[in-house]
């Protein structure tokens, strides 16, 4: 069966009382059996002293850390080591720098990269820019003093009626 991790929000443990300092998830633990449609029994160590059956809301599938290995690295034509970009997913702006959300080949999660790091994939960025429609920002109209006075007098007239 699959490995799962357990959420500690609803469990009293011997971890420090500070919720900030204790781990949010513990595990991985193997699933022993499916007890009910929404409950699973997991193989807990005896030191935890918890009932081994948990609702699916407090369990999630275990994902092994992917940062330990560097899959799909390639040697680029200039001799540097890099990764292959699968797609440009989104564009954003952080303070003054433009960033793109990049989906890498073989990676589950996309990462935000500044434009300066993406000089090798200008073709993909240009294709993304051509594909996405330009969003125009609506400018806020400045309200003149005359309009403010007119609004106030209209409100005063309504109150007097």
Automatic annotation (TrEMBL):
An example Gene Ontology biological process: heterochromatin formation
Boundaries of every Chromo domain copy: 83-140
Family matches, as SUPFAM superfamilies: Chromo domain-like (SSF54160)
Pfam families: Chromo, SH3_Tf2-1
Protein name, entry field: Chromo domain-containing protein
